Amino acid sequence: MAEVVEMDVTLKKLKNMMADFAKERDWDQFHSPRNLLLAMVSEVGELSEIFQWKGEVPRGLPDWKEEEKQHLGEELSDVLLYLVRLADICGIDLGKAVLRKMELNGKKYPVELCKGSSRKHTEISCKEDCNENGGKEDDPTK
Ligand SMILES: Nc1ccn([C@H]2C[C@H](O)[C@@H](COP(=O)(O)OP(=O)(O)OP(=O)(O)O)O2)c(=O)n1
């Protein structure tokens, strides 16, 4: 098995690694936005297959064999790598975008309204919880 070099992983490093990987193989021609999106979705399918028919599984997957966990890691990695590459090819700074999105998520789901509830933000009750606009607006960020 190939030796795995331990190093700090950043989105920027992964982006550069994927760019080098494609360039070395003259694969830039295949890495179009649509192709990468389809490749990522098919890897999501492979990821789903691992969980298919197993029913709910406990967190940490305590009963899974090492090979099964390794396989899971491989499929998760494929999804991540294609996602990083797709963002790059589309000219999206994924690091910047994800930090901005986390900030938006925090505003959309304020702790005081959402703690212990899995309701979608459109279902958070404004009538009881933020009645400044007569309950007309469901989205607390607007
Ligand atoms: N045109 C391609 C083909 C592959 N890869 C890279 C990104 C993924 O991490 C991995 C995907 O390889 P495969 O398509 O061979 O998929 P799997 O590794 O899942 O193998 P299999 O489909 O046989 O299970 O290789 C890539 O960047 N560009």
Per CATH, the architecture of the largest domain is Orthogonal Bundle
Number of domains: 2
| Strands, count | 0
As a percent range, the share of strand residues is: under 5%
Q: CATH superfamily membership of the largest domain, which one?
A: MazG-like
Average residue pLDDT: 89
Structural class: mainly alpha
Task: Supply the CATH class of the largest domain.
Answer: Mainly Alpha
Give the radius of gyration: 20 Å
Q: Which regions contain 5 or more consecutive residues with pLDDT less than 50?
A: 127-138
The ordered H/E elements are HHHHHH
* Secondary structure tally, helices: 6
- The backbone outline, from C-alpha atoms, is globular
Largest beta-sheet characterization = none
CATH fold call of the largest domain: Helix Hairpins
Distance between the termini: 53 Å
Q: Tell me the helix content.
A: 55-70%
Enumerate the distinct ligands.
2'-deoxycytidine-5'-triphosphate
List keywords for this structure.
cytoplasm; 6 helices; magnesium ion binding; mainly alpha; 2 domains; 0% strand; single chain; binds 2'-deoxycytidine-5'-triphosphate; 142 residues; Helix Hairpins
Describe the structure.
The chain is an all-alpha fold and 142 residues long. It has helices spanning 11-24, 33-51, 66-89, 94-108, 111-114, 126-129. The protein folds into two domains: 11-54 and 61-97, MazG-like (Helix Hairpins, Orthogonal Bundle); 109-142, no CATH class. It is built from six helices and no strands. The structure holds 2'-deoxycytidine-5'-triphosphate. 2'-deoxycytidine-5'-triphosphate binds at residues 21, 27, 30, 46, 78, 81.
